[in-house]
């Protein structure tokens, strides 16, 4: 079905599409499709008018039909011309009609008891229009501010429970269409009376039969066919079994008889001043509920339309168009809200017609219905619109209370059940509020179980990016276990922070990690922190002080730093920052402290001979022979030793000073890959592989480099093979040592 239509291409313009759509064969299919959709909407439309104008306002059923038809005409014209997809058909829907009926009932209940229906009608009419304007305006604002996607952040179980509860409201409202009362404890005797049962039982049977059949037959034409069959069977029963259709009409089996022309009541501007504030106040909760329900349904129905058509919609544009259409409907004297109808979209896709033309033809059909079709509604048996309402309500409850049992975790399913029950018992807004509380409570509970420690590493394996001499490396490999690195993650709050404190307390108190001297807390993956966590970090600081452990913080977000700085948590020592820019700088400080304690850090100069002799355990005479092939280079801070992209014609031994290895990306930013100090060699990989420099080397502390050029190496290999062998062994050992360290880091990260 998808992409079979010639109108599916987004590049097809209005003029070209209408030119194709107005060809005789296409036009005939368009009219046929419009007629089917018209039948579907027409069958359910009386229930919407009946729901809104019920009880004291029942005599205004014909006016309700007129208002519903005007709403449909205006919404169809606006959305057919402006929607982001040609197959968008916006129609009144049972969820919003039920809530607008509740709004009208609340307004009527809040009005003075002695107010006549004639005086009450224009006031209720204006309140319905107000609900349409406010809801449409909110949805329009979501689209214009491109904030439509915010609805996607509502937790799935809350939505499911809310819709399941809404399904009950729709199902319950169907009884009012056929019996004028809803299901309640005090109305059960009325509904179970034999006369009432004969009214609602056919509607319930039709709804259940349609629900069961729809689960087995996946055909978009099933519903219109079943409507036609149900009406035909009813009339056959009326003629051949009862024998008197008029008697059934007098007994109330049909919808109320509308006037010769369906009324489209004029807007009485003077009535605005007569609206009792109590009526507005009584309707406020319903209007707020309507805004929530309509907004959710715009997204759900738009999402369903994407699945049906196989095309992505611009959700922000759909919001803006839908909101503008519903506002236009209210201003035109309609006010019954409309939402996307995926069934109509499926029919358009099935028949391969142009949806915008179908929408305009539908608008014309409903205008003709408004002008000349009043007799049609009096021919519709009451059970049909009521049965459709029951079907939609049962479908909601089936989807979320039955089908979700097999799809969702039990915790999420229980949230749906609780919210559905609360919604049915205490109202839509109360159910939604309970859902939010439950979802937040479960979220806090589940999130508190999440391990805030992303990785636990040892300083003996995970080292800073500062390359050191062989002797220093060997010492740090032995003593690096005294540095404990904890990389934290997520959002820290009282639950996760306390679990983190208890875990670290067990490590320190029970000596799980040996003789720890430094603990580095890396906040790179922490996105926020609750103020209540400060007490746990304060207790952690007291614990580490008691065991003589220094606590370091790295990568802390600027917004969180005042929280820690003011909590008596940070060390205040000369020459040591309170916060480290990143984990690398914090580790470098810890390593320097360990080396300083072993009197290794003070060694600012390591000759090439010492490097080679220490690293490869080569005879000192062979190591000394290297010196005559080297070129001494004195450096100052800022000197560029090699540039990224240059030819690799030499490598350098650092006798003293410090250099940074910098990588220039596509943008202006420069990344520091490593720092290297006395006793290390640089540029050896590109030198041996004869590749261009992959990074630049810049001096950060003045010192002395020993340069070995390619020509000098070739001379060494020719004249002093023992010295050359010693050099090659040294480079092999250095690279093997780096690879071994890298392997340990990878293994530690995997564990």
Task: Please provide a written account of the structure.
The protein is an alpha/beta fold. It is about 60% helix and about 10% strand. Strands 4, 9, 10, 11, 12, 13 and 14 form a seven-stranded mixed β-sheet that branches. The chain has a five-stranded mixed β-sheet with strand order 3-5-6-7-8, with helices on both faces. A two-stranded antiparallel sheet has the order 1-2. Helix 22 links the parallel strand 7 and strand 8. Helix 2 crosses helix 14. The two termini are about 50 Å apart. The mean pLDDT is about 85.
Question: Notable features of this structure?
Answer:
7-stranded mixed beta sheet, 751 residues, alpha/beta, 12% strand, 28 helices
Brief overview, please?
This protein has 751 residues and is α/β, with parallel strands linked by helices.
Structural topology:
Blueprint: H1 14-21, H2 24-52, H3 61-82, E1 90-92, H4 94-110, H5 117-144, H6 156-179, H7 188-191, H8 194-216, H9 222-242, H10 245-250, H11 277-309, H12 315-331, E2 338-340, H13 342-351, H14 355-372, H15 374-378, H16 383-402, H17 410-426, H18 428-449, E3 453-458, E4 466-467, H19 470-479, E5 483-492, H20 494-510, E6 518-529, H21 533-546, E7 550-554, H22 561-565, E8 579-580, H23 583-597, H24 608-616, H25 620-624, E9 631-635, E10 640-642, E11 650-664, E12 670-677, E13 680-682, H26 684-689, E14 696-709, H27 710-719, H28 721-750
> How far apart lie the N and C ends?
50 Å
The coarse overall form would be elongated
> What fraction strand?
5-15%
Count every beta strand, where a strand is a DSSP E run of 2 or more residues.
14
Q: What is the gyration radius calculated from CA atoms?
A: 39 Å
Instruction: Give start-end ranges of low-pLDDT stretches.
Output: none
**How would a crystallographer describe the biggest sheet?**
7 strands, mixed
Total helices: the number is: 28
The average pLDDT value, as a whole number, equals 85
Helix content: 55-70%
Structural class: alpha/beta
